[in-house]
Amino acid sequence: MQFIDLKSQYAALKTSIDARIQRVLDHGQYIMGPEVRELEEALQAYTGARHCITVASGTEALLISLLALDLKPGDEVITTPFTFAATAEMIVLLGGWPVFVDIEPDTCNIDASLIEAAITPRTRAIMPVSLYGQVADMEAINAVASRHGLSVIEDAAQSFGATYQGRRSCNLSTFGCTSFFPSKPLGCYGDGGAVFTNDDELAQACRELRVHGQSARYTHTRVGVGGRMDTLQCAVVLAKLERFEWELQQRLAIGARYHELLAAVPGVQRLAVRPDRNCVWGQYTVLVPDRARVQAALQDAGIPTAVHYPKPLHRQPAYRGFAPARNLPHSETAAERVLSLPMSADLSTTDQDRVLVALRRALAA
Ligand SMILES: *Cc1c(COP(=O)(O)O)cnc(C)c1O
C-alpha cells in the first residue's frame, strides 16, 4: 500500500497527460507558454477568485504575497506554529517576525479567538493555514483583520477545492496561496503553486514580482524573484483538472468513511470538521496516544503513515528565537499525537479496511 497513490491517478489520466505534455514539446514555449494562462483562467473560474497567478511553488506563492504587501523588516505576521515550515519561513526570510498563536485542539487550525490579543502596532498581516484541507475560522479572522486594517493570507497549500460557507478555499481573503506539489489535493509532476486575489493592484504586483519585478520587458519596477511555474507543469495540472471533481468527491467519501469507522476505535481522536465547511483531507490525520509505538506497529503491518508535524515551529532550531512568552499547549500536544493515514482519491475500500484493522490492533496492544 502507498501513502499517496499517484500511480493509479496517472494510469487513469495517461492519455490526457501525455497529450498535454506532447503539445508543449511541439510548441516549445516552455516558459510562460499558452498553458500558463489557460490554467490561470481555469483556476479563477473554479475558485471564483478574480485573479490567479501561477508561481514556482506554494512557498513562492507565500513569498510573492508578502512581497506584494511590501512586508518590511520588523513587521509582524500572526500565524500558527502547527504547520509546515514554509509558512513562517517566508515571513522570516523577509526580515518579518512570525507571531505564533495556539491552535484549536479539535481542528488543529489557528484559534481565531486568540488573534486579536496578539496584534501590536507592528502587525501587518494574519496568515492562517487551512491544515489537512479544512479552512480555519476565516469569517472571524477577516473581521479582526478589517478592524485593524490588516491583510489576510490563507496558506491553502493543503486545501485546494475545500469549501467554506459556500465559497472555495483560496478565494476567502486578501490572498489565497496554494501548492501543486505532487502529494497535494491538486498536484503537478514537480513544483508549482498559485496566488489568488480579488484585488487588481495586488494581482498586478504579483504578476510583476514573479518575473523579476518587470512591468514591461527589461523595465524592473520592483525587486522581484524568478518565480514562474513551468508551462509543462501547468499542462499537467490542466490534465488533472479533468478528473479533479471526481477525486474531490472520492476524498470526501473516503474521509467520511474513515471518520465513521474510526468512531468505534478506542484511543483514536478524530479531527472535528465544522458544519459551515468541509475538509478535503489533504492528509487524513488522527490523534493517537503513544504514537511512536502505533506508527511502528502499522509499519510492521505494511501500512505507511506520516507525521504532519512532529514539532511546532517555535520548537524548531531555526524558529526557536520566535517562541512566544506564553506556552502554546495545544500545538505541543498535537505535535506529539498526530498521525496521518494513507489517503488518496484511489484508495480502495479493501486497503482502507486494512488500515482500520491494523490501527485497531495497534491501539489495543
Ligand atoms: C506543502 C506546503 C507548503 C509549501 O508548498 P511547496 O509547493 O512545497 O512549496 C506550504 N505550506 C503548507 C501548509 C504546506 O503543506
Topology of helices and strands:
Blueprint lengths: L5 H22 L6 H14 L3 E5 L2 H11 L7 E4 L6 H8 L3 E4 L22 E5 L10 H11 L2 E5 L7 E2 L2 E2 L6 E5 L13 E5 L2 H11 L3 E3 L2 E2 L10 H32 L6 E2 L13 E4 L3 H10 L28 H9 E4 L7 H16 L1
Helix pairs in contact: 1-7, 2-7, 3-4, 3-6, 8-10
Bound molecules: pyridoxal-5'-phosphate.
The gist of it:
This protein is α/β, with parallel strands linked by helices and 365 residues long.
Description:
It is globular and about 65 Å long. Helix content is 39%, strand content 14%. It has helices spanning 6-27, 34-47, 58-68, 86-93, 138-148, 200-210, 231-262, 291-300, 329-337, 349-364; strands spanning 51-55, 76-79, 97-100, 123-127, 151-155, 163-164, 167-168, 175-179, 193-197, 214-216, 219-220, 269-270, 284-287, 338-341. Helix 1 runs antiparallel to helix 7 (231-262), helix 3 packs parallel to helix 4 and helix 3 crosses helix 6. Helix 4 (86-93) links the parallel strand 2 (76-79) and strand 3 (97-100). With 365 residues, the protein is of the alpha/beta class. The strands form 4 sheets. Strands 1-9-8-5-4-2-3 form a 7-stranded mixed beta sheet, with helices on both faces. Strands 12-13-14 form a 3-stranded antiparallel beta sheet. Strands 6-7 form a two-stranded antiparallel ribbon. The chain folds into 2 domains: 6-242, 3-Layer(aba) Sandwich (Aspartate Aminotransferase, domain 2); 244-364, Aspartate Aminotransferase, domain 1. The protein is built from 10 helices and 14 strands. Bound molecules: pyridoxal-5'-phosphate. Pyridoxal-5'-phosphate binds next to helix 3 and helix 4. The site of pyridoxal-5'-phosphate has 15 residues, from helix 3 and helix 4.
